[in-house]
Amino acid sequence: MPATIVVGTQWGDEGKGKFTDLLSKEMSMVVRYQGGHNAGHTLVVDGEKFALQLVPSGALYDHIVPVIGNGVVVDPFVLLAEIDMLTRRGVDCSKLRVSGNAHLIMPYHQQLDALYERHLGKAKLGTTKRGIGPAYADKSMRLGIRVQDLLDEMIFRKKLRASLVHTNKVLTKIFNRLPVDPDMLADKVLSECLEPLKPHIADTTDLIHEALEAGQHVLFEGAQATFLDLDHGTYPFVTSSNPTAGGACTGAGVGPRHIDRVLGIAKAYVTRVGAGPFPTELFDEDGDRLVEIGREFGTNTGRRRRPGWFDAVMLRHAVRLNSLTELAITKLDVLDTFETVKVCVAYDINGERTTKLPYHQSDVHAAVPVYEELPGWKTDLTAATERRHLPAEAEAYLQLIEERVGVPVTLASTGPGRSQYLHFSSL
Ligand code: GDP
Ligand code: IMO
Ligand code: MG
């Protein structure tokens, strides 16, 4: 019963979608286990671009059962719009299954997300304003509404009313906004979403176990990334779920003994969207070039991503947090024209050198990267298909990463297209 987790090892947008799509060829089921439509996973297949937010990135293959697990927060309107978009573009979504235990994002969650951000002023987190935090907060407060509640109108209305007693107090008394009418909202959700969503709602934990017991290969697709993890990321500049590999277990309903492979996805450099510490951040021309060549603007929100050099200190920590078995390095081609390339191998914190990510966030803010600088390869890598095609300088760059991070690089990618990748050892 082989199972693989694909997990982001930096601050998101590493290319998880591309590798999930790529690996899906060998899979039977692809499961999203956390996050919501704050994710933007881009696939480029035969020159055609798909930007997915909620539907798992394996969905483009006919043989895949795409699953949205219990750990995901689902905006039913967004999900239906995405299914429509994919169907119009010839992708059959009839096999998509959504966990009845997944929580719903309601329009008031998005309103609250924007209000909390505005309330924070300069201290804002830079969330995607998709309602992710408020929806997970309601889940924790036991005020959430689950996908399965849609199937029983009485329960759905009752839960919405109960939840809005609290939320309407927040909206009216703290933010001076109008209250939400629970019955009007229930009418809208039930009339627009129930029928089209009904065939997709399922006991996904059971489906996943049936697949595993039948010896099928299941892929768990992480959204966001290790350093946006609610527990292990740069809190409070994080998302409200657990993207780290353990999140796949709780967010899908499988135990850790089912997982035999954890593939970490890392960009050949680093980007971050939104606020928060970022030791290797670049504010110079090199940074602008990474953004420009790498087209580092959010798939989802269009925001400019903050650029920086590859950080092996963070990556070593990501290996521990996720039990990474291997790494895929993406966007190697973006470095093609650089004279030199840098890897952060340690931090200097108030005069002391460390190769460990400090637990105290003030130290992360104070960390000055110590770089190892290598000559660039000054070669177009976009057509490379085998490791032996790589120039010696690119090979040295990957070897430095392997050595400093401590796990093998088994895959690398040299362009957004499905076929633009290098496969270094057996998949
Ligand atoms: P995800 O959120 O981790 O799935 O990543 P995103 O899709 O948000 O961002 C990655 C971006 O890089 C997308 O636009 C991909 O099409 C693109 N991409 C992925 N791999 C490569 C690569 O090897 N080279 C280049 N140039 N672009 C890539
Ligand atoms: P994928 O799956 C990059 C960031 C936001 C913000 C923080 C909290 O495409 O890699 P949220 O809306 O989740 O409450 O915002 O997390 N963020 C992402 N950054 N890629 C993502 O997803 C992200 N999802 C959330 O920018 O800093
Ligand atoms: Mg993304």
Explained architecture:
It is a single chain. The strands form 5 sheets. The chain has a 10-stranded mixed sheet, with helices on both faces. Strands 14, 16, 17 and 18 form a 4-stranded mixed sheet that branches. The protein has a two-stranded antiparallel ribbon with strand order 3-4. It has about 425 residues and is α/β, with parallel strands linked by helices. The chain has 12 helices and 20 strands. The model has no long low-confidence stretch (mean pLDDT about 95). The protein has helices at about 15-25, 75-90, 105-120, 130-140, 155-175, 180-195, 205-215, 245-250, 285-295, 310-320, 360-365, 390-405, and strands at about 5-10, 30, 40-45, 50, 65-70, 75, 95-100, 105, 200, 220, 260-265, 270, 305-310, 310, 325-330, 340-350, 350-355, 370-375, 410-415, 420-425. The chain binds guanosine-5'-diphosphate, 6-O-phosphoryl inosine monophosphate and magnesium ion.
Keywords:
427 residues; alpha/beta; 10-stranded mixed sheet; 4-stranded mixed sheet; 12 helices; binds guanosine-5'-diphosphate; binds 6-O-phosphoryl inosine monophosphate; binds magnesium ion
